[in-house]
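User: Second chain of the day. Same drill as before.
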Amino acid sequence: MARPLIAAINLAALRHNYQLALGQSATGTAVAVVKADAYGHGAIPVARTLSDLAPAFGVACIEEAEQLRTAGIQQPILLLEGFFEAEEIPQLLQQQYQPVLHSQWQIDQLTSHLQQHPVKPGSLNVWLKVDTGMHRLGLAPEAVTAAWQTLRQLPAIGEMTLVTHFARADETNCPVTEQQITRFQALQQQLQCPASLANSAATLHWQAAQQGWLRPGIMLYGASPLVTGHPLGEQLQPVMTLESRLISVRDLPAGEAVGYGGRFVTSQATRIGVIACGYGDGYPRQARDGTPILVNGRRCSLAGRVSMDMMTVDLGPGSSDQPGDPVELWGNNLSVNEVADWCDTISYTLLTGLLPRVRRIYSGE
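Assistant: Same format as last time:
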């Protein structure tokens, strides 16, 4: 029998979440972001599931785009970090990937290549990124107009979209986001161009940012980037449920240390279960004692350090749990956001950090 740890992927929930995002779009357009192997869910099955709904997909790099093309995905693919070196440009043009141009060196390299190697007029759509306040990628607002005009003069360039990214959109009352929107809107009004502002948090909350192309990412997979209780965030459905089973159960008296370093010490006579899952699967080693785990649907607590292949859970005194009983580590009945809080991290790292040896089992196709 195979090791019992699986990631159960509900593709019907994925479609629900994409349609929820699409419902917030003022223009009915949303790029489905499937970078980092669709946040650990499997980029190819995710893209295939959304192929009749999503008009475009977003990835981080050309290698991720190639995986989708090789699998038969024909929709436009947005390269969210553009290209990393000029050698990628011929491949980008051949496959008609759409780069996000965020730096002057990219514009210079692309301009030089297109001048030396002309292609079909209007065949390359590009996105120009403006730094409205996050200060990570993007041209300064005062440099955008000149860059826009440079690109617009190239015969190969087709549609151009102005894009930005929010630093604090998950903070629902943050004035920084309002300031970023205002800066962006001033440029867009000047250029009279298509726009893309909204990540998942803005898609769920910031109406002024919901014009043009939305870029839902984490929300597609059922994890809300917003605080618990947000009306739209609560409508998201978990796509991944990380499931395993107990492989051992033992009784311990009070005062016994459990696991590496003896961090957890039983405060009373209790039963300790061992679960087939560890940091070698992507479960965070920094998880604290008390991190919630569902055993037979009952809320229990992590007891001791997570090992490479196993973890221990306090089942409580008098429990009747036995080896082979089901365990949920996050998913349908236990929020990945709650687990992330206990691990001093965010849901993004838990989902994207799940390693390949965890079998993905798909349903709801």
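The CA atoms of residues 115 and 141 lie 26 Å apart.

User: Great, on to the next one.
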